[in-house]
From TrEMBL:
<comment type="similarity">
    <text>Belongs to the small heat shock protein (HSP20) family.</text>
</comment>
<dbReference type="InterPro" id="IPR002068">
    <property type="entry name" value="A-crystallin/Hsp20_dom"/>
</dbReference>
<dbReference type="Pfam" id="PF00011">
    <property type="entry name" value="HSP20"/>
</dbReference>
<feature type="domain" description="SHSP">
    <location>
        <begin position="46"/>
        <end position="161"/>
    </location>
</feature>
<dbReference type="InterPro" id="IPR008978">
    <property type="entry name" value="HSP20-like_chaperone"/>
</dbReference>
<protein>
    <submittedName>
        <fullName>Molecular chaperone IbpA, HSP20 family</fullName>
    </submittedName>
</protein>
Length: 164
């Protein structure tokens, strides 16, 4: 019988982690002063492919700038970017450089594989004016804001005199 000294091992036996986190809150266990607790699978945050890649969005007066964390890309064929007036979509594949059969993976935190993420932009942009560059693991996308404002139509006079 394998007996652990960790008093929180019983939590691993409980139901769905998502339900437990909804009940206790996302960061309930984060700041408890117990050693080695954060490394237990129960306490690690779940990550989904829909959250990859991480995106920071900046607002400037005439443009939005998206900084997209994509370490490990080697060429433009690894990633595709598309822009619509209110949406930015990035998709591609992050290669696994150590995927040979002779390596034993001891730990895995780096995302590898296919990804597809779309975010809604807070303002309309001009898709044809978008520029992008990849440097040091960041895909930086410059999105020109659509500055055109809807113009009010011509005022139409309304005749109220012919009702009698």
């Amino acid at each position: 019988m394998n007996k652990s000294n960790n008093p929180f091992d019983f939590i691993n036996q409980l139901g769905d982690l998502g339900d437990m986190r909804k009940f206790l809150g996302q960061d309930f266990f984060k700041n408890l002063p117990l050693p080695n607790m954060q490394s237990m699978p129960f306490f690690q945050e779940e990550r989904t492919a829909s959250e990859f890649p991480a995106i920071d969005l900046y607002n400037r007066s005439t443009e939005l700038i998206a900084a997209i964390a994509l370490p490990g890309l080697k060429s433009a064929s690894d990633v595709a970017l598309s822009v619509r007036s209110r949406f930015l979509r990035v998709r591609g594949t992050v290669p696994n450089y150590f995927s040979g059969t002779h390596e034993q993976k001891m730990m895995s935190e780096i995302f590898h594989g296919a990804f597809d993420r779309e975010i809604e932009l807070p303002e309309r942009v001009l898709p044809d004016s978008t520029k992008a560059m990849y440097r040091s693991g960041l895909l930086v996308v410059y999105l020109q804001k659509d500055q055109a404002r809807e113009q009010p139509g011509d005022a139409i006079a309304i005749d109220f005199s012919g009702d009698e």
